Amino acid sequence: MKKGKIISFEGPDGAGKSTVLETLMPVLQQKYDGHVIMTREPGGVAIAEKIRHVILDVNHTSMDSKTELLLYAAARRQHLVEKILPELEKGNLVLIDRFIDSSVAYQGYGRGIAVSDVDWLNHYATDGIKPDLTLLFDVPSETGLARIQTNNEREVNRLDLEKLDMHQRVRQGYLSLASQEPKRIKIIDASQSLETVIKDTQTILETFLELS
Ligand code: TYD
């Protein structure tokens, strides 16, 4: 039985979600007496981190889209079983930097794989578990890509190197997901200053956590 909660952080590359997550983590830890964990996809556990290396290697330019989708799903399954489910079982709050919606946005809308296939595979990998809340950090693709290029600390991965039109399809994919599931997916305007984005995120998180 699932007792804890999942909150996923989603958005196009360069939206700043990881920075916001890292900034808010200590605040949430204090508020929830340490019952909060932060993790990421692809990765989060050793086997899934190895799969991450294979997927994101900039030399793997010949990777087929379906291979890519299956690898994300494989990493997700291992992460779920080894880390997410045990944390939920303990009643903890699990914050994930990317989850099922990334596969729909990137492999579905971005790569052009049928969204119904991605949905099915996500369901297979997670046994139907979905986040209780998803924060979508939305930013115009040009702004996101410019941020990636000027951020020297961030390692550039294979998906970052995709052309502007792929990034635009990913963004549109996220926005249509948010319009289909407005109760679960909350949009944050990530083109604002980092300070404002952090404040907006905190407000949504606090409202959600007080109500639940
Ligand atoms: P990462 O360096 O973690 O990027 P970010 O900081 O933007 O989250 O790399 C993850 C990349 O993998 C990112 O470009 C999005 C992509 N991705 C997918 O295409 N499908 C997925 O299912 C997931 C989880 C990530």
Automatic annotation (TrEMBL):
Residues that hold ATP according to the record: G11, P12, D13, G14, A15, G16, K17, S18
EC number, as in UniProt: 2.7.4.9
Record key words, sorted: ATP-binding, Kinase, Nucleotide biosynthesis, Nucleotide-binding, Transferase
Gene3D superfamilies: P-loop containing nucleotide triphosphate hydrolases
One MF annotation (Gene Ontology) recorded for this entry: dTMP kinase activity
Pfam families to which the protein is assigned, alphabetical: Thymidylate_kin
UniProt similarity note: Belongs to the thymidylate kinase family.
Stated name of the protein: Thymidylate kinase
Organism the protein comes from: Streptococcus pacificus
Designated gene of the protein: tmk
